[in-house]
């Protein structure tokens, strides 16, 4: 069973030179994993990237507005585009729309707990309507064919009394998904409490397709532990990479050599400046300065005088002033 999983995952990697046994995925994070952050994470060792979630309705009705979310550069490969929606026909149409962009896989969001999404019966609401979730996967697979892998990302269930990840995962496999990703929290939990890695281990033992484990990998040791405890086929890192994109290379170092290099304040400054540089490729200066504020909250976490620095950054409107402030804050005396 384990071998089948590895073989199926190698379909995803077959066109690429990177073929680690346990690939490191950057999780989709709406509002954060735009092209700039994805390129940065790729430089920092992320091996598989996923777009932010994109509305299938948006793609099929008003693609001009939505298209910015699906654009990616060849250097980001292998990359998956994640879609959300609740209508099998619309979801399949959206997947078909993506085909000319040639993503390495298409992922279906069945884990988003945000009200705006579940009110429409999409995201994690689909865990309550497994027949509809099955119809979505079947219809997309029928439309995109066997050559492009289809994955499903979901949670443990709606709440502690309704944990259906095992049944749901099996249904997704039987409907044609090529691999799965489990974030083992309930929808009710949102992002609070701890993710329950036992669910990953259990699901892995009842499906034959690869399973990517996700949830609370915040340091390299967490990644090693998830791998050992769950036997999953890949690791997906989300919040742990915010303000710490080098986490990917540290994880790979730990898994390969048993130790990893620490990151210095000077490395941190270089990474932030690179992030800004990437962002300027895609957005206007004023937008970059504004959008970097939320990213800089993460980069400055734990630094001495962080609150004061953040407050200063939040009032800066010009790029040159932002760069000067960062250089001053991060350069040792
Ligand atoms: C700000 C934010 C945005 C997110 N956006 C998405 C999304 O677009 N699609 C998705 O499947 N999950 C999304 N997630 C969930 C993450 O992909 C991931 O499953 C979750 O954060 C647990 O992993 P972590 O502990 O490594 O962050 C988001 C999470 C956060 C915190």
Strand and helix layout:
Elements: H1 2-13, E1 24-26, H2 35-43, E2 49-55, H3 56-61, H4 63-66, E3 79-84, H5 88-98, E4 105-110, H6 115-118, H7 130-144, E5 150-157, H8 165-175, E6 179-186, H9 197-206, E7 211-214, H10 220-230, E8 234-237, H11 247-257, H12 265-282, H13 285-299, H14 306-313, H15 319-330
Parallel strand pairs: 1-8, 2-3, 3-4, 4-5, 5-6, 6-7, 7-8
The structure holds flavin mononucleotide (FMN).
Flavin mononucleotide is lined by residues 27-32, 52-53, 82, 109, 111-112, 153, 183, 191, 214-217, 237-240.
Description:
- The protein is α/β, with parallel strands linked by helices and 333 residues long.
- The chain has two domains: 2-257, TIM Barrel (Alpha-Beta Barrel); 265-330, Non-ribosomal Peptide Synthetase Peptidyl Carrier Protein, Chain A.
- The protein is 47% helix and 14% strand.
- The chain contains 15 helices and eight strands.
- The protein has helices at 2-13, 35-43, 56-61, 63-66, 88-98, 115-118, 130-144, 165-175, 197-206, 220-230, 247-257, 265-282, 285-299, 306-313, 319-330, and strands spanning 24-26, 49-55, 79-84, 105-110, 150-157, 179-186, 211-214, 234-237.
- The chain has an eight-stranded parallel β-sheet.
- Helix 5 (88-98) packs parallel to helix 7 (130-144), helix 8 crosses helix 9 and helix 12 (265-282) runs antiparallel to helix 15 (319-330).
- The longest helix is centred in the C-terminal third of the chain and has 18 residues, at 265-282.
- The termini are far apart.
- Residues 1-8 and 14-18 have low confidence and may be disordered.
- Flavin mononucleotide (FMN) is lined by residues 27-32, 52-53, 82, 109, 111-112, 153, 183, 191, 214-217, 237-240.
């Amino acid at each position: 069973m384990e071998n089948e999983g590895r073989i199926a995952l190698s379909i995803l990697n077959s066109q690429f030179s990177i073929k680690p046994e346990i690939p490191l995925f950057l999780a989709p994070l709406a509002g954060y994993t735009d092209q700039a952050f994805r390129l940065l994470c790729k430089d920092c060792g992320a091996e598989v990237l996923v777009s932010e979630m994109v509305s299938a309705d948006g793609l099929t009705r008003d693609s001009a507005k939505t298209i910015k979310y699906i654009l990616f550069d060849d250097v980001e490969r292998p990359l998956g585009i994640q879609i959300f929606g609740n209508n099998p026909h619309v979801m399949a149409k959206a997947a078909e729309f993506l085909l000319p962009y040639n993503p390495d896989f298409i992922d279906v969001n069945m884990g988003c707990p945000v009200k705006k999404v579940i009110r429409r019966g999409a995201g994690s609401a689909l865990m309550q309507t497994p027949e509809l979730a099955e119809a979505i996967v079947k219809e997309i697979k029928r439309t995109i064919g066997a050559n492009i892998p289809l994955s499903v990302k979901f949670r443990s269930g709606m709440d502690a009394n309704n944990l259906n990840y095992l049944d749901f995962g099996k249904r997704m496999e039987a409907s044609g998904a090529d691999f799965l990703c489990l974030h083992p929290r309930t929808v009710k939990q949102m992002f609070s409490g701890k993710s329950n890695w036992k669910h990953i281990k259990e699901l892995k033992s009842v499906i034959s397709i690869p399973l990517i484990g996700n949830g609370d990998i915040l340091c390299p040791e967490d990644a090693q532990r998830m791998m050992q405890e769950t036997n999953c086929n890949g690791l997906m890192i989300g919040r742990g990479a915010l303000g710490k994109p080098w986490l990917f290379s540290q994880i790979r170092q730990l898994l390969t050599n048993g130790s990893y290099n620490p990151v210095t304040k000077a490395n941190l400054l270089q990474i932030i400046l690179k992030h800004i540089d990437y962002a300027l490729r895609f957005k206007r200066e004023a937008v970059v300065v504004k959008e970097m504020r939320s990213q800089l909250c993460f980069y400055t976490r734990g630094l001495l005088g962080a609150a004061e620095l953040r407050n200063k950054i939040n009032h800066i409107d010009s790029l040159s002033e932002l760069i000067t402030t960062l250089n001053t804050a991060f350069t040792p005396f």
